[in-house]
Amino acid sequence: MERTLWGHLPLLVRANSKESVEYILQSLWKTRKTGLDADDRRLICEMLQLQTDSDLDPLLVCLRMLIRRCVYENISKDDIQKLFPNEVLPELQRLLTLLLQKFQREWRAEIHKDEVSFPRLKAMTWNMGNQDSELTEPVAVINLKLQNDTQAPQEELDLKFQLAKETLDTMLKSMYCIRDQLSNLG
């Protein structure tokens, strides 16, 4: 499938300037989560001198793939040009390589800001609560110590919660059920 998409890259040669191609790449990056709106599509069609936008989608898919590979796979600057097959015009390869190199660091920084990191479990203890009282059912008191490795000074978080006996029984039954199902597979 990738090979057939490359045939749409020459549409970029129709752009009047390097800045137009730069605008297209920046627009694709900014709208990576939402997609281009009708105004952006119309503007890009005008930049590329397209009568209809039917040729636009395959080009945009190809460009998004290139952007994704450069940013998410952290392709080195020297290897960006190796992404293109021989059938892509050398001047187009140079232009796209130059622009992708120009924005790669900035775009990678943006994705790192967007990433959510979860703290890791450092320690877990539990004990039974309400053992002395006959009026309330016993509960398991779970203590978790979590560590967030992404903070500059590594931050620890203590989390404490209680599970009622019936909740704990349900969890254990579920775990035994899953264990039994897994052992039946093997």
From TrEMBL:
<dbReference type="Pfam" id="PF07258">
    <property type="entry name" value="COMM_domain"/>
</dbReference>
<dbReference type="InterPro" id="IPR017920">
    <property type="entry name" value="COMM"/>
</dbReference>
<protein>
    <submittedName>
        <fullName>COMM domain-containing protein 9 isoform X3</fullName>
    </submittedName>
</protein>
<feature type="domain" description="COMM">
    <location>
        <begin position="117"/>
        <end position="177"/>
    </location>
</feature>
<dbReference type="InterPro" id="IPR037360">
    <property type="entry name" value="COMMD9"/>
</dbReference>
